[in-house]
Specification:
Layout: H1 3-23, H2 28-37, H3 44-60, H4 68-79, H5 115-125, H6 129-136, E1 142-146, H7 153-159, E2 164-165, E3 172-175, H8 185-188, E4 192-194, H9 197-205, E5 213-216, H10 223-231, E6 237-242, H11 245-249, H12 251-258, E7 263-267, E8 284-290, H13 305-308, H14 311-329, E9 332-342, H15 351-360, E10 364-366, E11 380-383, E12 393-400
Helix pairs in contact: 1-2, 1-3, 1-4, 2-3, 3-4, 9-10, 14-15
This protein binds S-adenosylmethionine.
The site of S-adenosylmethionine has 19 residues, from helix 10 and strand 6.
Length: 402
């Protein structure tokens, strides 16, 4: 592909990302991948260049733009004016070079994020908000988790000398840029999994122990399920539940590769979750709710989450988080704990939900927890890329006392 054709490809992907933001469609990463499945002529360098440009544009345009072209022009004008010289085509040469610039055509304005989202972050981070947002809009490193059922970190550091230990997670490794994990025998042997250090810390916050009865209520494809199973030394019972059949279906293969045999996978029907969980009522030592959320803590990977989030959608997410907390409360045994996690830094999805829960559920109280090497024990923990260098998370632990 010529440089100009790459720019036109980025515009077309961005058009789809804009439409997806309005309709709840696919993530930008998926859009770029799909774009190239029907364009076999594009090589790996073309794909990488187009993907990088798409993500650079999304990072610099904080609010949903009128079109992909408007977004790209706005980004280029502010950060890479030489790209505008590639707008040499005509309106009917789509696919080759972007059409010539027209005087007064729409142009998106660079910004960090929608003002109302920044205001909410400001209530948590105050004067530090700009630093946090800048870190959220940086590129994320590739982190791996050592599967302690099959390996230990020191041995892997000898086997894979390009990797470095992460600062906080005792099982974390940070990979050099561009590493393709699928090329590593250690991955196929189940010794390592891709997992951001923040997710590793969130799983550690559960405090899982061998032999316990644990429920991972929003298990998805099992990222944290695998980490919990390793903390349990593959002893006890681990129920992994989710409403998304597609995500759950990826789990058995991952469990098998990691040597995990204690998991009971349960498919839940949305709003009828209890039907598939009621046999576990009041029995769990620990329940993890890794709740669906706005994803503001993962802007490094999904910067288009800023375009997708509306006040209405946030309200719906908070309602769902309340519902999942109440559902989980019924599963915890007396003396057991409930760990609530969101990869969001908006206080409404964090402290807001926990305070609302505690008002309604007198049998629960905040429970202090600590992660070795981190801050003093506390009932909540906020992780941010500006402070800990990982994705942003809010984590809270509650104990059922009666
Ligand atoms: C943040 S993701 C979980 C990621 C996963 N725990 C991991 O570590 O990879 C949130 C998950 O909640 C699931 N979910 C949404 N509504 C749910 C519900 N009512 N009951 C259970 N899971 C739900 C979604 O399908 C999604 O997989």
């Amino acid at each position: 592909m010529t440089p100009a054709a790459r720019v036109q490809a980025a515009i077309e992907c961005l058009d789809q990302a804009v439409a997806a933001a309005r309709t709840g469609g696919a993530a930008a990463d998926t859009i770029v991948q799909r774009y190239f499945t029907t364009r076999r002529y594009a090589g790996s360098k073309d794909r990488r260049a187009v993907r990088d440009l798409v993500f650079d544009v999304i990072r610099s345009i904080g609010t949903v733009p009128e079109s992909g072209r408007a977004a790209l022009i706005g980004h280029a004008r502010a950060n890479a004016p030489e790209v505008l010289e590639l707008f040499t085509g005509t309106a009917d040469t789509a696919g080759h070079a972007p059409a010539l610039l027209v005087e007064g055509e729409p142009e998106a304005r660079p910004s960090l994020a929608p003002g109302w989202q920044l205001d909410m972050l400001r209530t948590r981070f105050g004067k530090g908000t700009d630093k946090v947002v800048a870190a959220l809009l940086d590129r994320a490193p590739l982190d791996l988790r050592v599967n302690t059922l099959m390996a230990n970190r020191d041995e892997l550091l000898i086997e894979l000398p390009d990797l470095a230990p992460t600062a906080l997670s005792p099982t974390g490794l940070r990979a050099p840029t561009g590493l393709n994990i699928e090329t590593l025998p250690a991955f196929h042997a189940g010794k390592i999994e891709v997992q951001d250090e923040g997710s590793q810390l969130a799983a550690l916050a559960v405090g899982a122990l061998p032999g316990e009865n644990i429920i991972d209520l929003c298990a998805g494809a099992g990222g944290k399920t695998l980490a919990l199973a390793a903390a349990m030394a593959n002893e006890g019972r681990l129920v992994a539940a989710d409403t998304d059949r597609g995500r759950l279906s990826a789990m058995p293969q991952r469990l098998a590769r990691a040597g995990v045999t204690i998991t009971d996978i349960r498919m839940l029907n949305p709003r009828k979750e209890w039907d598939a969980l009621k046999d576990l009522a009041g029995l769990a030592d620990r329940v993890l709710i890794d709740a669906p959320c706005s994803g503001t803590g993962t802007w490094r990977r999904n910067p288009e989450a800023r375009w997708r989030l509306t006040a209405e959608r946030l309200g719906k997410l908070e309602g769902e988080q309340d519902r999942l907390l109440s559902l989980a409360a019924q599963l915890v045994k007396i003396g057991g704990s409930l760990t609530y996690v969101v990869c969001s830094l908006l206080p409404g999805e964090g402290e807001g939900r926990i305070n609302a829960f505690l008002l309604k559920h007198g049998g629960f109280r905040p429970q202090e927890f600590s992660i070795p090497g981190m801050a003093a024990p506390a009932p909540t923990l906020v992780l941010s890329p500006a402070e800990q260098g990982c994705d942003g998370f809010f984590i809270a632990r509650l104990e059922r006392v009666c």
